[in-house]
């Protein structure tokens, strides 16, 4: 179970963005008993550990903390169970099962866990981060799908909370499972989950639409929800600076609907709209494509949509998915995973743009995100030739001011990536009442603070 | 704020089923400050209190506990706020606002909180019980709609947790609001909530279908979900004994699709199926009624549906809503609010029927419920002429055995009505690990145990 020898540890010590800090040890329990043995040992020895799933998270919550002596409990071998209950529309899965394997197994029963990401996380990691993704607007976050959990508590006995239930409704006092969803592994170790799953969509219709104003992005969203809320499965925004980066670095063969030589023709906002349905085209004389065309035409007649492109979903999503890589190629960046009330999204965005200009004068601003649910990936990019010290200084000033701005806008600095050392400094923007209550929960469940990823105080 | 004089207290002391126990006092705070003042006083005096919303719950969680000296904090005057944010699709409401008033205000913006009940509870009460209702299968429980809460903690300072956020995704450590949802007022007092709301449905299509076997009830459900999961808004079952009661006691003028004189013609199961959509009929050439007809015909071709009636939703729902009153008229009853995994629902039901025959030989069994989400209202009715002592004895024996059976079936005794003195005796069927953790949370948040509705130990 334990790995020794420094060379073997690299991949457990290195996060998805390539940041590395040393692990004292790596344990790879292959069942619940081995997880419990590891926890009991850590409790007795007061050894700090971080739990690592598929190691796909960007907030450093799954790798050892720099400057601390921590071990890694990798869940990668904990994959024995994928049990599908078709009539209950649920699946029971071990924490180490990855999303792609889970969905491959579910697809054979016509089912899917509709969490759509540019990564392949583990079940345990998705629960710890309460992962969102591109289909949250219709299908919800991971929390919405969690019916039950098995959790090992970091106490002397490595107590197991037997919450692995398969019920869609159950209200018998405080629902303990919610303490472990979205809390970044601070209170317990998730070893298995029961997830409510959905029928596979039978039709998907996708369009890219150009919009001139942030207000109109929201108006179009409201129209789509009023007419087709149960089908609206994605509402993703790319702003012009992001489109410019994609224009420069787009992969060969990617469909690009704009005139290549005329960057000035790029719209201020490009929105990817998607509808899905579990009904087949045979069920309905009007297909979902027709419905989407009708709705976009209505948005156009109201002056909100200035241009539109329809096409195969995979083709249009390729453009959306090209965003982050294109921006990475522009230069060193800092990215914020924000969410604010939708009604304030574009007002807050204007404030962010002004803030970047003020605090990070050498940076360029770009953004994109799941605006349908209030999400925004807000990115600042520095020129490669700027001295590192200058960039670091601007980045730190920006980060500090950004966290204040988001707190003032009643938003969050951690929409869907969870809390980790990467964004922990924002934590103190919470009200003291909330931090006190969270710290009390930490003291209750993890009295020796052996779960070391995040400092809840 | 305080009411004195015994006569004034009756309605605060009496629950929806007419059970009464005396209150030492009744406080009716009209704002947050008055709630806090009440809590500080109770903390200082070690006075026990129960929080009461609209007093519509059936588990005695909102009235004083028999045999204890408790006051009532009625939230009925706490109704100052109904703030709708159309672009964010949210509403902020005071805890004392009732569901009908909320939906009346929302309807003016084309929105609705899709919690569908045979009662008119308060916002705070719905949060405390994590109310389900007849549309849970499509629209979810109250928890799914809660984005934020304002909570007064029962500590010396009456600390306010400022969790009144309007975000659809926010993962910054343990999400405290979930501790107060569905926990029956054991840990804190909800004074306001932010709720995510939905566009009003534009089309609703409803049918009653007759089904011979429990397995076929599940097969039809699976078919409907595979073809129209995003529209399936209700899947309600009435079994033959319930239909017999409705036949006897149905209100004059209610549509009754069966031959009045032939009880033997009643099907073993009648299922109310409903689809809804936010799209108007003009959006689609095939209406939702056509779609439902097609799907029911498919169920019929597969042999699962033996007969079907289509009609106005209100007409068909009248039959469904007649169930509980008809059963009440049959005689004294005990009702269980159960949920089990759907795949085991009819197997568990068979066990329950055998159990009732064994433990309560004078009782007749009837049931109905939200089977689409695994829910079952399971009812035993005694003849009026049976001596009370005999009935009480049978009832107690049945209740005890029923709780064991449901625990063994991995189900719950409290699907959607919450935990209260009425079903508290089932609480010890929890694993000791879960009860220990719940008791520790109670000690943490309510150190003097002033919130007295439920005994979490």
3D architecture notes:
2 copies of one chain form a homodimer. Chain A has 457 residues and is an alpha+beta fold. Chain A folds into 3 domains: 2-74, Uridine Diphospho-n-acetylenolpyruvylglucosamine Reductase, domain 2, CATH 3.30.43.10; 82-199, Uridine Diphospho-n-acetylenolpyruvylglucosamine Reductase, domain 3 (2-Layer Sandwich), CATH 3.30.465.10; 203-408, Alpha-Beta Plaits, CATH 3.30.70. In chain A, 33% of the residues lie in helices and 22% in strands. Chain A has 14 helices and 18 strands. Chain A has helices at residues 10-13, 32-45, 99-107, 123-129, 136-139, 142-145, 177-180, 214-228, 240-249, 288-301, 313-330, 345-359, 388-408, 432-445, and strands at residues 2-3, 26-27, 48-52, 70-74, 82-85, 90-94, 111-112, 146-152, 160-163, 189-196, 198-199, 203-211, 232-239, 269-277, 305-311, 333-339, 364-369, 375-381. In chain A, a hairpin with a 7-residue loop joins strand 8 and strand 9 (160-163). The longest helix of chain A is centred in the last third of the chain and has 21 residues, at 388-408. Chain A starts with a strand and ends in a 12-residue tail after the last helix. The interface between A and B is large, with 95 and 96 residues.
């Amino acid at each position: 179970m334990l790995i020794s020898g420094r060379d073997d540890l690299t991949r457990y010590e290195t996060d998805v963005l390539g940041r590395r800090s040393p692990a004292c040890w790596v344990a790879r329990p292959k069942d619940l008993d081995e997880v419990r043995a590891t926890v009991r040992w850590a409790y007795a020895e007061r050894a700090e550990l971080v739990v690592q799933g598929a190691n796909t998270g960007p907030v450093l919550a799954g790798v050892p903390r720099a400057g601390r002596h921590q071990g890694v409990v990798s869940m990668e071998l904990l994959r024995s169970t994928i049990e599908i209950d078709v009539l209950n529309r649920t699946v029971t899965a071990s924490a180490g099962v990855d999303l792609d394997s889970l969905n491959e197994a579910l697809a054979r029963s016509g089912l899917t866990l509709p969490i759509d990401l540019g990564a392949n996380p583990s079940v345990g990691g998705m629960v710890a981060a309460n992962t969102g993704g591109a289909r949250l607007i219709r299908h919800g976050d991971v929390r919405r799908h969690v019916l039950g959990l098995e959790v090992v508590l970091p106490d002397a006995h490595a107590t197991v909370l037997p919450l692995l239930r398969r019920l869609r409704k159950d209200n018998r006092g405080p629902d303990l499972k919610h303490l472990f969803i979205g809390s970044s592994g601070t209170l317990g170790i998730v070893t298995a989950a029961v997830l409510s799953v959905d029928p596979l969509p039978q039709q998907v219709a996708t369009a890219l639409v150009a919009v001139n104003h942030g207000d109109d992005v929201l108006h179009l969203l409201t129209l789509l929800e009023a007419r087709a809320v149960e089908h609206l499965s994605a509402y993703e925004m790319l702003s012009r600076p992001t489109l410019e980066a994609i224009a420069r670095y787009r992969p060969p063969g990617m469909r690009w609907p704009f005139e290549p030589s005329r960057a000035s023709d790029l719209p201020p906002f490009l929105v990817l709209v998607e509808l899905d349905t579990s009904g087949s085209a045979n069920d309905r004389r009007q297909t979902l494509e027709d419905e989407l065309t009708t709705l976009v035409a209505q948005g156009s007649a109201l002056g909100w949509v200035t241009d539109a492109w329809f096409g195969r979903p995979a083709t249009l999503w390729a453009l959306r998915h090209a965003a982050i890589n294109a921006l990475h190629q522009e230069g060193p960046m800092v990215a914020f995973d924000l969410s604010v009330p939708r009604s304030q999204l574009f007002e807050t965005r204007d404030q962010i743009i002004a803030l970047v200009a003020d605090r990070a004068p050498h940076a360029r601003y770009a953004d994109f995100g799941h605006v349908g649910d209030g999400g925004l990936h807000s990115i600042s990019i520095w020129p490669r030739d700027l001295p590192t010290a200058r960039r670091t200084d601007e980045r730190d000033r920006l980060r500090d001011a950004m966290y204040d701005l988001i707190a003032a806008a009643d938003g969050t600095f951690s929409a869907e990536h969870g809390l980790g050392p990467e964004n922990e400094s924002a934590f103190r923007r919470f009200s003291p009442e909330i931090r006190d209550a969270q710290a009390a929960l930490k003291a209750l469940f993890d009295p020796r603070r052996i779960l070391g990823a995040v400092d809840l105080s």
